[in-house]
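Review this fold:
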Amino acid sequence: MPHKRLRHAIVPACVLSLATALVAATSNSANPSASRPAPPPPAGRFIPLETGTLFIPESFRPADREIDLLVHFHGDPATVGRNVEAARLNAAVLIINYPGLSAAYSTPMKQNPDLFAQALAAALSRLERENIVPPGAAWRKVCVSSFSAGYGAVRELLQQERYFDRIDGLCMLDSIYAGYVEDADAQPPSSSQNATPQKDAPATAPARVRRVNPAHMQEFRRFARAAAEGRKTFILTHTYLVPGSYASTIETADDLLTHIGADRKSSDEPIADSPVHVISRAAKGQFKLWGCAGEDGEAHMQHLRHMRIWLVELPLQRR
């Protein structure tokens, strides 16, 4: 069902505001205003790896040799760690950041198709060497979360069948953008269907209709369909920020809703202990969407700062 105006108008936002938020997400500026006390660091260990940083919550207790893993793209490690704690996930967390926008995330995955598999193997090996998990441990559930520009990596991963199969759940936090394509409108609007054309009147160029580029949505559509059928889990959030020059997270969300045949409904849900205000929802099977109020970079950042709200929806063990 196409997105309709609910409680907040969809208005173009300053692209600079969004770009600033994208860069801030991977640093300490992902935290609230510097005028406030810095939040305490998460309880646990951060272990640098060749690809990413491994976070082991202090409360992590592997029940057996099958371990859950969350891989997060684009986000300050301390912020991600605090949210994992708040969500009470009993999982290891691999946080991967690259400096730049979406191309900084897609390029490494494209240049080295084995990179994700190597990162997962390295994380498991390090857990064994540190005696955090028993010898012979294996990943049980692997879920991927992404904020903002991190979607570039996720889209590349889903193009490979082995990773599509391996990933049990996605949590895309205001984090699916796409390009546009333009189509000629076969029936441009006319003021009168019965008007008689004037002799020698200049030809009217077909109207151009801009829509989300389907080539950029193919992998996400497939995963959404699998979630709607109960075979995967897909958690999706968006703000009402519209970049203008490329498709927003609202438009890409609507593309997915149309593809799986799910309807969006109005909501009015302030989330406790956060500035997040949910104003629309949709669900089908294990596909769940939250539309959240806000039209600027600050609203965008709240999806990282309060990702705990949605992490609990992933099929990961909790304590």
In short: The chain has a mean pLDDT of 88. Residues 11-184+207-311 form a domain with the Rossmann fold fold (CATH 3.40.50.1820). The chain has one domain: 11-184+207-311.
